[in-house]
Amino acid sequence: MRYSLPSYWCLISLLVVLFGNAAHAQNRVQLPAFAKLDECYRIVGKDSVVFFYSLEYKLTPPGCAAIRRHVRLDSAGRFFGYVRDYRLSNNQLLLQAAYREGKLEGQMELYHPTGELAARGRYLQGQQVGDWGYWYPSGSRRQVLSFRNGQYPLVQQFWDETGQQTVTNGTGTWYRDEDGMRLQGAVVGGVQDGKWFLRRQQDATVVAREVFVKGRFRNGFLTDQLEAYQDEPRLSINDWQAYLMANEYKLNLACSGAN
Questions:
Q1: How many Å apart are CA 199 and CA 72, to the nearest integer?
Q2: Where is the signal peptide (predicted)?
């Protein structure tokens, strides 16, 4: 059920309570200086707020923020209704989506810094569902992933940056480049199979490897830490979903140490 706060002052009180507990906990353990709470948002209506974030979606003063979010809050401090995120550097739309009772609901679109569409798909009660399409900054097709009941997504189709299709109907070779790393491996029937490697792109050094058998994780190894593990995979097919961090209302460091 949606609820509009009755006045400007009620929203101020809500924000103070919402963020006050987090600030109190941080002060108790004498962590490095964090941003001031009242510098990280602007109230623009009875239940409408603009939040300012770092690239990691931590609350940040506007002077050193990278993202601003236009959103409404319900009486419990949860996002509801339509939300729009913009890059402060060029006022480019970064994300548009909707919330219901604090959970993502309905269609979401993500955009590259160039303004090209990066991803489009649907959320249901906070979970990605159905087929999601992805595109490169050039506008060319990248991949189609199918999400099912909170499980790991199925890789349906994948194209490299030259336009060559390397996964067709769930079978082939998949990769993702991110933060100077490349995650790569084979998929069969839409699921990971065989050895998957995370390598530094600069020198192709293996940072981690994981072994799958028809989608079932068997084991993994972190090269730098010399750590083996068998509990669960640590390398994800999903792109980094930094926007989910906004739900946690975490404070960034003060501007002198932010970003």
A1: 41
A2: 1-25
